[in-house]
Design a protein that fits this description.
Two copies of one chain form a homodimer. Chain A is of the alpha/beta class. Among the domains of chain A are: 178 residues, Glucose-6-phosphate isomerase like protein, domain 1 (Rossmann fold), CATH 3.40.50; 33 residues, no CATH class. In chain A, the strands form three sheets. A five-stranded mixed sheet of chain A has the order 1-12-11-7-10, sandwiched between helices. In chain A, helix 7 links the parallel strand 4 and strand 5.
Chain lengths: 471, 471
Amino acid sequence: MLKSQIKLYYKNITAEAVGSEHGIDRQQFESLAKKTAALIPGIKEEITGGATRYGLLPDNAQMAKNIKKMVRQFKDKCKNLVVLGIGGSALGNIALQTALNPYTYNLDDKGRKGPRLFVFDNVDPAQLGSFLDFIKPQLSKTIFNVISKSGQTAETASQFLIIRKILVDKFGPKGLKNHVIATTDLQKGTLRKIAAEADLPTLEVPDGVGGRFSVLSDVGLFSAAMCGINIDHLLAGARDMHTRVTNPDFFKNPAAICAAINWHYYNQGKKISVMFPYSYALYGLADWYRQLWAESLGKKSSLDGSEVFIGPTPVKALGTTDQHSQVQLYREGPNDKVFTFLEVQNHGKKLRIPSPPACARELDYLAGKDMGELLNAEKKATEYALLASNRPCLTVLFPQVNAYTVGQFIYLYEVTTSIAGALFGINTYDQPAVELGKVATFALMGKTGDEYEKMARQIKPLTEVDGEFLV
Amino acid sequence: MLKSQIKLYYKNITAEAVGSEHGIDRQQFESLAKKTAALIPGIKEEITGGATRYGLLPDNAQMAKNIKKMVRQFKDKCKNLVVLGIGGSALGNIALQTALNPYTYNLDDKGRKGPRLFVFDNVDPAQLGSFLDFIKPQLSKTIFNVISKSGQTAETASQFLIIRKILVDKFGPKGLKNHVIATTDLQKGTLRKIAAEADLPTLEVPDGVGGRFSVLSDVGLFSAAMCGINIDHLLAGARDMHTRVTNPDFFKNPAAICAAINWHYYNQGKKISVMFPYSYALYGLADWYRQLWAESLGKKSSLDGSEVFIGPTPVKALGTTDQHSQVQLYREGPNDKVFTFLEVQNHGKKLRIPSPPACARELDYLAGKDMGELLNAEKKATEYALLASNRPCLTVLFPQVNAYTVGQFIYLYEVTTSIAGALFGINTYDQPAVELGKVATFALMGKTGDEYEKMARQIKPLTEVDGEFLV
């Protein structure tokens, strides 16, 4: 199994495939290769000790050991694992679970190889309230993994305060440590202080790795390991991909090619990037990619300080489902999108389609076929239809969906993002625009301080409902 | 409860709110009003007997009676209801369930007021296979509702053939009618023939109503009613909204205003339309809207036959979750989006945030607040941050989420779509571009006939992997 490599297939972005107006010709591709190849050595440096250090995670053997130790300590006592986190502290966890455990995992009390997993990345009282009503009778078998680098994220903090009180009311202040694992900064911050005071077991949000690049750390791997996912295979996949995506030969480097093609199309006015898995299991990865791409590449300023307001808009779609929802637009709407299909060659499970009844011979063509064959035929049919409308298509081919190939995919897209950021000439690793909304939330929630009070006065007339514009 | 109306709030698209480059000034708005108002009487005609007839559904009292009769017949015998459908035969069902039943509905065997609901809108052998393994021991208490106008949709047909065989193997050919309800054309088609032969109970996919406009028919309402949702309130909401959205006075018509604003912005280069509910319950409606908007407005040809390739790209986002994923891009990326928030004033459930421990005073500002207050403050904070970057924002205000307000919302967006289609000058109700992919699927699956065989020969070289472009 560990031999199976995912591959990037890019013939259907060429001028031969989608015409000269929308395709990339050989000369353009050579020039993309030259520009991009020059960036690869710098990216290799950058991700293993420069601006970010996510490239060190797959080699960190101690990390996997610590996680497995924590799993051994908690797994037997745990029938429900509840992750409290948001953004990079949730999307990776959801993506791994969706990819690598069955669709019915949480329902199937007999087949499941670990606790049920719930990930809460919101502050919705209807949603969380209904969950709390449901989980309260089962608290003694429930573990909460609260994930926040600082502990000050309003969503995670407020979820945690609610759950902390429920647990303290039930098990006393000393019982907290049997039900909460804090994943946070190693040294400092609000959650670190709370954990120290309550003697909570802790895991680490690593330094120098932004949230959206942290899935292959304690952040994403602990919940995965608890639910029976092979984290060694995930890391091995990432390690093996590291070799491929740091190859200075552009033509052998899938991240470089993927980044270059996306950058080229953005500059040509195709500002929407659709990730289109033909596998429900991979749909969570499309959502994870959505954050990775949007936060990393959506930037107002370039590195030289000029105002650019750039960034492709990532969109998740699901095959075949979205053929009956989005493909009309994808073919006949403006030609402003690049499509990246995720195609699975072996779906693991076979489902044979039986013969139709005699009154429905028009369905005979399905009889005896495997459902996976139909799914892949629909992918090819959709790609063919898009090509007929001159829409460029990439495909990432998965021999199968397993921890090793998913680890490869994650690392492929992390490095693709780093290279794309370098091509765009922006800082890939910050997110300055998120700050204003956080401060405004503090202000509206009545946090004390002149700054907040002044801002609250500013916001109210802008967002309070004015009858003139209400219909 | 039946008095509570949803409202459209549009101050934050004005030039005062987002500046003259990205806002709409009074003169522009007057001119939009004039152009749009002229279309309203025609739309009223169109939807109640013209090109489409979805406008007749809310008044159809017999429909609700039939559905309730079918529910009475099956509800007691049914612990699991499985919908087999795709596109308009699935997205509305999912949206109603997500909006109007608790998040834990399928898990909560004690609290639930109906069968568990599963909706399968794909042909993924891993996903469906794991579900079949799970459901097989419970077949005697499971009902399948197969929904297809023609019965020839490849996805629904193949799912149905698999399940049909499982049921016949277990209950014999005569047992099928106790476990399958067919929602299909009243007179003709493959599924109608199969239903007649096996004596299946049937419901109707109404004539003259496209799939994406069919949620308020048997298609969407039967599964809702089975799960305890008040379909009379849904229909009452749609009826009351009908009065508002057929009002020829533009300034009193929320659908006209919403359509006009969206159309204006598309023409100004804002080609992405983000629906951004701040309520998990409403997230499924954003996905339903995605189909409605994309298939209706994504068109190559205008009504006069000229080539236009138009259509806004709908995107679903979720607050607060996507603040930590997309807002960086939404503020600092290209100013190419219109945002439509869905805001809920009363979340139904209160969750008080307790005080933090003494070591974490920085969280004091949360203490004693209700989680719904935080959620709504985050919405306002995000809106404020977007306005600070001159991004236009609409809000649909829900007094609360219930069947009556959800019925209003559905009808509001259906008519908004009809008016937008008229403004764009396209056929809102067809989907010609979906056809090629369907035929190509037939071809690749080996359907016999010269047309298919020829096409299969065409497709293969285009979609088969060519080593030169594989990395």
